[in-house]
């Protein structure tokens, strides 16, 4: 695979062209190509890449996903070549290679491994160098001889210099790319301060000077590597969401030709008009219409509901849905790229791209901070050397002190340290924080949108025992015990252990027939047992009918119960002026009934995934900041599109991957805890920035005036980091949210 980085492209060398296999032609004569962009760490990086690409003549649209580092470029092949797009990316200071999902995960794993290794090396070196530095500091007042002090300095240098060279590579590479592209990022002052402090320390050690600054350089690297490693891990989890969803599609399909001969084809080769066979237990390979057979389908991917849907000739089916009880033949109506499953993935990625506009406060401040630090340090050096009458090395020491004391360690920690403390606090309440900027967005929420099944409710169908005849229940259960149908299992569970009917036969998509107490009996849909049309009872919710001999048909209804504290959570939200909305793919009547139980006034049912996206977009256009809480596969695009999102741990893996937070347990109380922690976290972040600015307002003038040595600057820099850390730890104090039983803490 072609791989182009900033080290071997855009620097006077030819960029190799991109193989045609990575370029997809469009019907209008245009084309689309996807790249993975290396070196992207924040929203500012995304904007730089998109600006560089969109500036090319012939590029109609270039959009980048920060989570997956995937850049999608639509362009005119007559005006621009893919290699020119790569050159533009490299010219912006980043690496680029064609997008290949097979190698993306392994590449991310290598990058994550490198960061963890660098962090470990820096941590080991920092601990040992600080121990030696403490010995030197204590020795100044204890009469330590110069030879002993020099020995400690040499040992510190032998530990720190190789560690700096190894652990600083992620920052050095990033800074070098930016400088080669004529750009600036936060890694430039970091790298400069680390290298100058380490280099000056080595020079001072060789000269036998009293002070060296190895501890400042290696500790700075250690703290920053912690933050970058955490960010990499969270971005990696988010990048797997779409891949996990696509894993639900079939790998191959059995196509029935006009001659009746069956042959296997990959799903990518399916075209409208083909007829595919779907065996029991298989997933439907493509969107289409059933032309033969009857069965029950698990459509939770589309509707989020656990109750199966009957499929018969004429029924529309979608790729990824599970065929449960009988073979089907489906006429394909859409290719793999146009299927509803692929559309859900595109919705997720589009939502992730929209989320990139949320740049963390530290990144925004860094745009001004980085060049200001360089200008200030250079001015200090020139001022003391020329105007102050100092020799160049003394002036350089003061400039290094300015670089170190203004080094953005406290600024860089202001958000991550609060994030770490908040993550621990939320974990104690059963909430896993997955997105690095979710707390900032959650603190802005003014509207909560709940899914119904599996979120506001438990998601498990239970028999509604109101008016149920125990004798009829036991008779019906004898047939139900012979089936794996979800409604049959729920009926059998309600009846408890007992005998099963004899000579049971299953009619896919309709029901069961068998002998109950010597009488022929049926269990299934209303039509199957002769009770009319199922549409006549649709508003009543999931149901199953039983009829034995000449007896009248008996209906068994099923309900999904609210989580025990759902009502209390809704009341809690209202007390905080949060609007609550219920959106569900279930029947409108069922949704209305549950909304009434929970006390929710705004609700809507019968929604497909794209419908939920549309409702969220409408709320956003009204200026609302929405927290989406959902658990189904169909909720994944909505979770990704919302301002911020949560999913219960019982939800689908894809929904958990798309959500910003995941909560444990059977209660909704963790949602309230997350909102409270987010609000307090935002306040602490602002306080930390205030402390950082106050520190710089006091320390910088003193350093510029020449009253601070690099050693004192390192101590001051570390003290500012400790200060913001202690402030963040206040988040551990006090109570958040409400108890699981609904009582306020």
Features:
745 residues; alpha+beta; seven-stranded mixed sheet; six-stranded antiparallel sheet; 25 helices; 27 strands; 16% strand; elongated; disordered C terminus
Describe the structure.
The protein has 25 helices and 27 strands. It has a seven-stranded mixed beta sheet with strand order 15-27-26-25-16-23-24, with helices on both faces. Strands 7-6-8-14-9-12 form a six-stranded antiparallel beta sheet, with no helix packed on it. It starts with 22 loop residues before the first strand and ends in a 17-residue tail after the last helix. With 745 residues, the chain is α+β, with helices and mostly antiparallel strands. 49% of the residues lie in helices and 16% in strands.
* Average pLDDT: 78
Annotation field: number of helices: 25
What is the strand arrangement across the widest sheet?
A: 15-27-26-25-16-23-24
- Helical content (DSSP H or I, runs of 4+): 40-55%
Radius of gyration over all CA atoms, rounded: 32 Å
Structural class: alpha+beta
Strand coverage percent: 15-25%
Largest sheet at a glance? 7 strands, mixed
Number of strands: 27
User: Which stretches are poorly predicted, pLDDT < 50 over at least 5 residues?
Assistant: 1-13, 350-360, 740-745
Dominant shape: elongated
What is the end-to-end distance?
57 Å
């Amino acid at each position: 695979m072609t791989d182009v980085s900033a080290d071997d492209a855009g620097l006077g060398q030819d960029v190799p062209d991109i193989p045609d296999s990575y370029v997809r032609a469009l019907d209008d004569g245009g084309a689309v190509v996807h790249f993975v962009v290396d070196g992207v760490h924040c929203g500012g990086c995304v904007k730089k890449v998109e600006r560089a690409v969109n500036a090319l003549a012939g590029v109609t649209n270039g959009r980048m996903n920060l989570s997956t580092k995937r850049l999608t470029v639509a362009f005119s092949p007559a005006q621009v070549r893919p290699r020119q797009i790569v050159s533009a990316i490299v010219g912006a200071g980043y690496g680029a290679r064609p997008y290949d999902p097979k190698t993306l995960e392994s590449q991310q794993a290598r990058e994550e491994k490198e960061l963890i290794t660098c962090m470990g090396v820096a941590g080991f070196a920092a601990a040992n160098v600080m121990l030696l530095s403490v010995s030197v500091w204590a020795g100044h007042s204890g009469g330590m001889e110069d030879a002993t002090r020099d020995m400690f300095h040499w040992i510190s240098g032998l530990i720190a210099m190789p560690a700096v060279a190894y652990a600083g590579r992620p920052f050095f590479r990033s800074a070098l790319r930016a400088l080669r592209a004529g750009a600036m990022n936060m890694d430039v002052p970091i790298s400069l301060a680390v290298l100058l402090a380490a280099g000056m320390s080595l020079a001072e050690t060789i000269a036998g000077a009293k002070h060296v600054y190895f501890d400042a350089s290696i500790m700075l690297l250690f703290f920053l590597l912690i933050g970058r490693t955490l960010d990499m891990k969270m971005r990696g989890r988010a990048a797997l969401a779409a891949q996990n969803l696509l894993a639900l599609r079939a790998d191959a399909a059995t196509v029935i030709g006009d001659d009746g001969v069956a042959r296997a084809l990959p799903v990518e080769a399916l075209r409208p008009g083909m007829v595919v066979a779907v065996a029991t237990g298989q997933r439907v390979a493509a969107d289409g219409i059933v032309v033969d057979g009857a069965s029950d389908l698990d459509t939770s991917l589309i509707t989020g509901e656990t109750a199966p849907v009957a499929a018969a000739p004429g029924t529309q089916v979608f790729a990824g849905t599970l065929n449960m009880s009988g073979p089907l033949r489906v006429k394909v109506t859409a290719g793999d790229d146009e299927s509803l499953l692929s559309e859900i993935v595109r919705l997720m990625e589009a939502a992730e791209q929209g989320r990139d506009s949320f740049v963390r406060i530290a990144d925004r401040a860094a745009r001004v901070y980085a060049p200001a630090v360089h200008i200030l340090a250079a001015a200090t050096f020139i001022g003391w050397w020329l105007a102050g009458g100092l020799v160049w090395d003394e002036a350089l020491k003061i400039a290094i002190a300015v670089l170190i004391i203004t080094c953005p360690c406290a600024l860089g920690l202001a958000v991550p340290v609060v994030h770490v403390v908040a993550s621990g606090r939320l974990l104690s309440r059963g909430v896993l924080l997955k997105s690095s900027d979710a707390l900032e967005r959650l603190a802005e929420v003014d509207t909560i949108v709940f899914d119904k099944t599996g979120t506001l409710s438990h998601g498990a169908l239970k028999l509604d025992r109101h008016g149920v005849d125990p004798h009829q229940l036991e008779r019906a259960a004898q047939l139900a015990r012979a089936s794996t149908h979800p409604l049959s299992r729920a009926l059998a569970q309600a009846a408890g252990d007992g005998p099963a009917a004899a000579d049971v036969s299953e009619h896919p998509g309709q029901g069961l027939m068998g002998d109950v107490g010597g009488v022929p009996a049926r269990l299934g849909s209303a039509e199957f047992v002769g009770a009319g049309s199922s549409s006549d009872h649709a508003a009543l919710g999931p149901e199953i009918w039983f009829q034995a001999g000449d007896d009248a048909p008996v209906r068994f209804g099923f309900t999904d119960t609210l989580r025990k504290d759902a009502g209390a959570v809704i009341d809690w939200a209202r007390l905080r002026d949060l609007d609550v909305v219920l959106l569900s793919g279930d029947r409108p009547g069922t949704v209305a009934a549950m909304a009434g139980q929970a006390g929710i006034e705004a609700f809507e049912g019968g929604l497909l995934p794209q419908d939920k996206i549309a409702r969220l977009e409408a709320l956003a256009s009204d200026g609302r900041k929405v927290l989406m809480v959902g658990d189904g596969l169909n909720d994944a695009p909505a979770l990704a599109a919302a301002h911020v999102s949560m999913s219960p741990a019982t939800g689908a893996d894809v929904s958990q991957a798309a959500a910003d937070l995941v909560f444990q347990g059977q209660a909704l109380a963790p949602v309230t805890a997350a909102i409270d922690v987010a609000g307090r976290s935002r306040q602490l972040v602002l306080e930390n920035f205030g402390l950082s600015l106050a520190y710089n307002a006091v320390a910088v003038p003193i350093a510029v005036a020449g009253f601070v040595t690099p050693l004192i600057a390192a101590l001051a820099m570390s003290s500012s980091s400790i200060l913001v850390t202690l402030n963040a730890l206040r988040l551990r104090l006090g109570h958040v949210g409400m108890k699981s039983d609904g009582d306020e803490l």
